[in-house]
Amino acid sequence: MGIISLEQTNRLYWLGRYSERVYTTIRLYAKCYDDMLDDIGENYADFCRMLEIPNIYRDKEDFNQRYGFDDADPNSILSNLIRAYDNAIVLREEIGSETLSYIQLAIYAINKAKISRAPLLELQNVEDNILAFWGIADDFIESETTRNIIKMGKRIERIDLYARLKIGAKELKSELHRMHTRLLRSGMPYRESCLERLTDAIEHMDEAHVIDYGGIVQSVESLVLI
Amino acid sequence: MKDKVIPEDFIFASSGYMPECEGVSPVRGVYSHISGIDLVKGKDGEWYILEDNLRVPSGASYPMIARDLCRRSSPKTFRDNLLEDNRNYAQLLRKTMDYVNVEGHTVILTPGRYNAAYFEHSYLAEKTGAHLVNGNELLVENDMLYYVDYKGKKERVGAVYRRISDEYLDPMHFNPESVIGIPHVFDVYRKGKLALLNAIGNGIADDKEIYYFVPKMVKYYLGEEPVLSNAPTYLPFYETDMAYVLAHFDNLVLKDVAEAGGYGVVFGSSMTKAQKADFIALLKREPRRFIAQEVIDFQDLEIQDNGIVVERKADLRAFVLMADEPYVWKSGLTRFSRNPDSFIVNSSQGGGFKDTWVLSR
């Protein structure tokens, strides 16, 4: 039909953001989980600080379980995956049953991880399903606008996370270019002032030798008018 | 009514009668675009019609899914048996929607994801290429219905396959508390600038009381006996029928005409003495509220219950789509009861469904 309502746009955008959040935080969580096997400090506290989420965890075991799999913890990986699913399930006709099915499979896999004694093995399946979701979305979704909105959400989330994690200039620049292309192609309304600030903070950070990560997060969060 | 085939007070007193629809003709004169006819096969080998669903019959997506899964899991079965392919329902539905579309987009209107049939709404939207919408995504302006896109651009809508009940469709004309409908959509519809599938007011035609008169209608319009029989039905409103119902109470099933989905159905044989006395008192007080039917001992079908093959009561919902001509979908929804002692097959009460074969000979 080729037309998308504001509500659908919002859902496509957040589907992109939450699926990316799940993918990236699983990778971080896996690293943190692995470090803590060797008792290298209380890494989960740093993890929470980096992502600016409240450290509500009693100890590392509590973190491993609740951050990964507690649906009552709004910052957990499971909660973010459920939000991705909540958006995807009402977009079936837009993204297709096959695309949607990979988010459903990711939910299935994370629930297996929750009760597994080796959760990282199952979380690999979650990651694989998210990657398959991206792949089939690219291949299967006919509407270019739909694809662009999801991918724009993904790129915005990635810049947001990279800035919070204080990842270097090279990666941020690359993500900015990819996001900018999607933003223009999607036709979504955005704040030019935010884009300018974002570009300035990322493109010129080498010269200043100081990266304004807080400014990047603020600009990227306010960029799109939804 | 004029020829006294159906007493007019049965029409006007029906809970499905909507005075707002008086004088309104739907686009191309089609009222029931999608009809769901519930059938059972008795142990005598005869098929009986249990009821007609002419408002928002659901369930067509499940046979499509069941066929896909069955073909994957048992390819040999499908190589060895000549079966009609039932996966063309979406094309038939699209043709039905396009036939009445009034120069605009086609949308499927859903009450939202928490509706029990939401999967079907979204699946049919995907398969027909229609757009799945909530009421708040549509807007009436200058006697036209529009879909508003994310840039604020308005696109005209010409056909709405609505999956919400009449009373919730338009808060300005029907239930004012509805938040899932579209204000003023009824105005667009009655001016012929929009097709609604199915038409508003069809509740009068699939009323359980009117069911009693359907064989008479068939005979009146076609001059022939119906090919399929109704389950023998009695209206306690008529004195002779009331006498029969009271005399054969234990052999009958009684249905509240205002209920649907398997609710409001009681079997005379399953009542205690006190319940029976209370029910008969209610029946005498409100004879119009109920119909009574002979209990048809319909055939059991084999199903798998936790991996064990058992027999359960089953019925068949046949789907008839009306575009330029009526088309009977060569499939249907076969529903079965979970409970070995139950005749209730509705999914809302735990019933399951099976793939439905129409042999191609």
Describe this structure in words.
- The complex is a heterodimer of chains A (226) and B (361).
- By secondary structure, chain A is mostly helical.
- Chain A has two domains: 1-142, no CATH class; 146-226, no CATH class.
- Chain A has helices at residues 6-37, 43-51, 60-69, 77-88, 92-95, 97-114, 119-140, 144-164, 169-186, 192-203, 205-208, 213-222.
- In chain A, helix 6 runs antiparallel to helix 7 (119-140).
- The two termini of chain A are 22 Å apart.
- The mean pLDDT of chain A is 92.
- Chain B is of the alpha+beta class and 361 residues long.
- Chain B has a domain at 232-294: Dna Ligase, domain 1.
- In chain B, 25% of the residues lie in helices and 25% in strands.
- In chain B, strands 1, 2, 9, 14, 15, 16, 17 and 18 form an eight-stranded mixed β-sheet that branches. In chain B, strands 3, 4, 5, 6, 7 and 8 form a six-stranded mixed β-sheet that branches. In chain B, strands 10-13-11-12 form a four-stranded antiparallel β-sheet.
- The radius of gyration of chain B is 22 Å and the shape is globular.
- Classes of the chains: A mainly alpha (226), B alpha+beta (361).
- Chains A and B meet through helix 1 of A and strand 3, helix 5 and strand 4 of B.
